[in-house]
Amino acid sequence: MTKHEDKDEQPLFEDANHEKPIPFTSELIHEFTNMLTAVIGYSELALHAIEDSHPAREWLEKIRNHTRELGALLHKIGCSEAVEIW
């Protein structure tokens, strides 16, 4: 049991083969949004810390931009909480 699991919670998967989908709960959306926020934040910090000519700049911009696109997609499919970080 992980630190986020409660003893009374249902497991995310019904069987050992993981054939059932993960429930798209507000808690899961919240946790995922938190992770996206961290990725965007750290990529922004790194972009501010390096020169425009640094070879990693292109990759950091891609990380930031694709993460923002993922947030927009979450909003589009009805996860209104995701829009808060974009």
- How confident overall, as mean pLDDT? 75
Number of helices: 2
Stretches where pLDDT is under 50 for at least 5 consecutive residues are none
Name the beta content range.
under 5%
Distance between the termini: 33 Å
Assembly form of the protein: single chain
What integer value in Å does the Rg equal? 17 Å
Q: Sum up the overall morphology in one term.
A: elongated
The level of helicity is 40-55%
Please provide a written account of the structure.
The chain is an all-alpha fold and 86 residues long. It has a domain at 26-85. 51% of the residues lie in helices and 0% in strands. The protein contains two helices and no strands. The protein has helices at 26-49, 57-76. The longest helix has 24 residues, at 26-49. The relative contact order is 0.13. The mean pLDDT is 75.
Summarize the structure.
The protein has helices at 26-49, 57-76. With 86 residues, it is mainly α. It has a domain at 26-85.
Question: Which properties best describe this structure?
Answer:
mainly alpha
Task: Furnish the topology, listing elements before pairings.
Elements: H1 26-49, H2 57-76
